[in-house]
Design a protein that fits this description.
266 residues, Serine Threonine Protein Phosphatase 5, Tetratricopeptide repeat, mainly alpha, 2 domains
Length: 266
């Protein structure tokens, strides 16, 4: 069957059943033939019957992007990512729309989502690296000037028990985490881990920081270990890593229990 025959069959099916879910396939074929107006008419009509169709929403966003209506495209593409948060194609379409609108931070966040679900995506990797450089001047000068905790805060940080609660990351932490995630994307794991350790030491522990330290702990080099042999050093290193992972997991568990208690009390 030729593509023309397939289009004819799909057109016939949609004429007989306007609610057919095959509209996405036909609209995609329309776009491949630059039949953008036909594709838009079909998708708009079909989304009335299938408002939660992720494929339909992505197609609608793509069509609007082709029309240079990038601002309008944000709505269907955002809806698509909300309905299917693990759909990297939806995140890519959204990232490209944000990029056209010169929304650097939003584009960067969306491209990072692409990489999270499709780590080998070369376009997203290049985009993240470039956007991190382009938006570097937007960070405040004191972003990475770690301010030491006061003695009182340090005492409270070191004596938090099982009743400890954590607030959502503040703006400074969010920006720091964004920078650290960019380092990981560029495989600068040792640098990312060093920054995480510095932040944790100066500002206290937080699950967002500790969970990343847990993932990167394999890259940590405990230079303070003085072992008699390479084998002994390796064993000690592994023990330290295991202990750190256990500590982090215990902290995350306390957070879950705290959140659970909050939910039950409401």
């Amino acid at each position: 069957m030729t593509r023309e025959d397939e289009i004819a069959e799909l057109q016939k099916e949609l004429q007989q059943n306007p609610r057919s879910a095959q509209f996405a396939r036909l609209a995609d074929m329309y776009l491949s033939r630059d039949m953008n107006a036909e594709a838009e008419t079909l998708v708009r009509q079909s989304l009335k019957f299938h408002p939660r169709s992720v494929s339909g929403l992505i197609l609608m966003g793509r069509i609007l992007k082709l029309k240079k209506s990038h601002q309008e495209a944000l709505k269907p593409l955002s809806d698509a990512t909300a309905l299917a948060p693990d759909n990297w194609k939806a995140w890519q379409e959204l990232a490209e729309a944000q990029l056209e609108l010169k929304n650097g931070k939003q584009a960067l966040a969306a491209f990072k989502k692409v990489l999270f679900f499709n780590p080998t995506h070369q376009l997203a990797r290049r985009a993240v690296a470039k956007l991190e450089l382009l938006t570097a001047d937007e960070y405040e000068d004191d972003l990475f000037q770690m301010q030491k905790l006061s003695e009182k805060d340090a005492f409270n940080s070191n004596n938090q028990g099982t009743n400890q609660t954590w607030s959502h990351p503040d703006e400074q932490m969010v920006r720091t985490l964004s920078y650290i995630d960019a380092l990981v994307v560029r495989h600068e794991n040792a640098k990312a881990l060093k920054l995480l350790n510095e932040y944790s030491e100066q500002h206290g522990k937080h699950p967002e920081i500790e969970s990343r330290k847990l993932k990167l702990s394999v890259f940590e080099e405990p230079t303070f270990i003085q072992s008699k042999s390479a084998e002994t050093a390796s064993q000690i290193r592994q023990k330290l890593i295991v202990e750190k992972k256990i500590s982090t997991l215990e902290m995350l568990l306390r957070r879950i229990e705290s959140n659970k208690s909050d939910l039950l009390s409401t």
